[in-house]
Amino acid sequence: MTSSLEASALDTLGQVIPEHVLEIARVLARTGHRTWVVGGSLRDQLRTVLAGSSPNHGADWDLATDAQPQVVQRAFKRVIPTGIKHGTVTVMLGQQGYEVTTLRGEADYSDGRRPDSVYFVDDIREDLARRDFTINAIAYDPLARVVEDPFDGVGDLQRRLIRAVGSASERFGEDGLRVLRAARFVATLEFDLDPETARAIEPSLDSFRKVSPERVRDEWIKTMKARAPSRAFIVMRDHGLLSATAPALLGPEQSTGEAPLQVALRAVDLSAPNPSVRFAALLHNVGSASVNDQPVNQSAELAFGLLSSLRFSNKDRDRIVSLVRHHAAFDPDTRSDADLRRWLRRVGPELLEDLHALMQAIASARAEATDGVERLFERARSILKLKPPLTIGELAVTGNDLRQELDLAPGPLLGRTLQALLELVLDDPEQNQRARLLALARDTAAKLESS
Ligand code: ATP
Ligand code: MG
């Protein structure tokens, strides 16, 4: 089968192929080889073409060819051997790079993680057959203007279905990441799972458990770019992926009322597609429970553990954990400016806008009013505009000044004195002047020493 694409759609697809892609195909044609547009880039262009929306002219294009990698390398002036072992090279034309991959066959996966080896083939259909889902297993020859669609991926694009190529259980057994990719596409494309593909997920969980945490992390990050990431997390919850990766998100078994995960997922969908905010929304209540009717919250600790196990960078992890730690709303009207300065010191001004987005999303997800949150952040912003010192480093005196002027030896007393000065300045930023602080420091150090 070639494809069920109508002539007009084929025409629109032809028009969106950039000149560079045609140039690569023509150069390889002179060496006796064919080139196809494949993968996610073709899928996404076809989707817009089928929806009648205007195609994305600035998109990346994944190319496949029946030429061996060495042939591709020789055919172009500037080529980067990006993943030459797997048959991928990047052809540079102008400022633009194009990944060109030699057709590959399905290799053995003895560990459910990575193919043991790759081998090159010259039949585009064999290459398409090793791909995960029908919508990702379409190829378009831009010179012949022919679509190869052996698994009716175009039909599934129209039906909005994620369906495995061939036997879903076999495909999922080979590479456990595919089940998570299925969940991700349910969210990013807003498609449904084909029932047979869905049924094959649970029996494949053993292979899913072998997938490296880095690959799982990357899928989760891509999932967060969807309009409604909850679609993917619901698939993960319903088919056992979440209990394999993050059982804490499923919460205690016999909780009453709405499951915390439901609230968290609503908050994820309601936040803008900023990954830190969305991960914080997902995790904000992962550790809330009540023990003897007392609320306890270990969400920040559990978030730290989960993000570490998924190998998030320390920087990303710490940012998300801070957001989780500080998300609790409070009534700003009962707090003084000094209270808010202390709160800002704990939060850190650089986190303020993300925290605002997070607290708004959580309040909306709980169907609570957001005006308290708005007032809090308005006040916080106007306080920050006055640039109050929030850290010891922003004091008008340094530890060195205190050592010289007060004859203080380096050590705990010096540190405690600076800390006490900061507390005074947080109460009243006007005090942050060198002479004033030195005078205060004399009293403070004397008091601390005698206490
Ligand atoms: P994205 O929009 O995230 O780029 P994609 O489908 O393009 O999605 P890539 O990882 O860029 O995903 O892979 C390109 C193509 O390679 C896919 O469309 C699919 O045909 C194939 N592919 C990728 N990962 C797998 C996998 N784990 N198993 C089988 N085929 C895969
Ligand atoms: Mg891609």
Describe the fold and architecture:
The chain has 23 helices and eleven strands. It is of the alpha+beta class and 451 residues long. It folds into four domains: 153 residues, Beta Polymerase, domain 2, CATH 3.30.460.10; 86 residues, Hydrophobic Seed Protein (Orthogonal Bundle); 141 residues, no CATH class; 59 residues. A hairpin with a 4-residue loop joins strand 3 and strand 4. The radius of gyration is 29 Å and the shape is elongated. The structure holds adenosine-5'-triphosphate and magnesium ion.
Short description:
The chain is an alpha+beta fold. The chain has 23 helices and 11 strands. Strands 3-4-5-2-1-6-7 form a 7-stranded mixed β-sheet. A two-stranded parallel sheet has the order 8-9.
Task: Give a topology summary.
Elements (H helix, E strand, L loop, with lengths): L6 H10 L2 H12 L4 E4 H13 L10 E4 L3 H7 L3 E5 L4 E6 L2 E7 L21 H6 L9 E3 L4 E3 L4 H7 L1 E2 L5 H7 L2 H12 L3 E2 L1 H5 L5 H5 L3 H11 L6 H9 L2 H5 L14 H11 L4 H9 L4 E4 L2 E4 L1 H11 L4 H12 L11 H11 L4 H14 L5 H15 L13 H8 L5 H16 L6 H17 L1
Parallel strand pairs: 2-5, 8-9
Antiparallel strand pairs: 1-2, 1-6, 3-4, 4-5, 6-7, 10-11
Helix pairs in contact: 1-3, 8-11, 8-12, 14-15, 14-19, 15-17, 15-19, 16-17, 18-20, 22-23
The structure holds adenosine-5'-triphosphate and magnesium ion (MG).
